[in-house]
Each structure stands twice: as structure tokens, then as C-alpha cells.
Amino acid sequence: MLIVHHTPSPNCQALFESVLAGATAPEIEGVRVVRRAALSATASDVLEADGLLLGTPANLGYMSGALKHFFDQVYYPCLDATRGRPFGFYVHGGNDVTGAVRAIESITTGLGWRRAAPPVTVTGEPDKADVQACWELGAALAAGLAD
């Protein structure tokens, strides 16, 4: 499983760490979790992954430029080879994440990826329920890929 994230703030970092903890929970066996910063992730990373989990802040009503760059780099090389690949995502924003969610859903629909879990959307400082939802997102995606 590939986790592609952009974590420029403590709030995004908390959500990322929770997703990672869920994805690597000891009770989930047989899943190798690879994490890449959005600016470092490559088409090869995506092609080698059986599933993906994406994380981004909402900046100016859109996903981060780093995640958009990731999509720009992998779109055509991965277009046919990754159709049907399961994915999930989380978005953190100061007050609105609608545009970021819409953009991610549009691009992943174009790629033909299959959303395996509802997105986790968080505005403001993440509370205990938000962090738990991210843990569950990571665990659900990893469990879906387990042997």
C-alpha cells in the first residue's frame, strides 16, 4: 500500500501519523506500507502498489500543489495499468475542503481508481474523533489488501 501525503502543518502531521498507525496496525498482516511525500512519489511507486491512500491540506479551496504535482506526474504513466486500484484519502482545511475533495474525486475517477472507503475530511484543529477516523481509514485500506 502506498501512502502519498503532503504534511506541511502540525494538523496534517497528526492526521498522517494516525493513518500510518492504522495502516501498520499489528493485527493487519501481509501488507507492506510505503510512504512517500507527494513531491517524491513516482509513477513506479504507484505501479508497484496494490492500493493507495492520499493525504493533503486544502489550500485556497483546492488540494495542495504537491498532491496536484503527484497526479500530474503519474496520470498518463498509470492510467491504464492502475484501473480499479482501491484508494482512500483524507483532507485537512482551515474552514472548507469541498474543492479539494471534488478535485481528488475527479482525478481519481479519470484514473479509474475505486474508492475503498469514504474520505476523511477535517476542518480546524483535529479532535479525537478526526484522528480516530484517520486511523480507521488507514486500517480499512490495509485490511482490504491483507493476505
UniProtKB/TrEMBL annotation:
Transmembrane segments: none annotated. Gene3D superfamilies: 3.40.50.360. Residues 37-99 form the NADPH-dependent FMN reductase-like domain. GO terms for molecular function: oxidoreductase activity. This is Flavodoxin. It comes from Streptomyces naganishii JCM 4654.
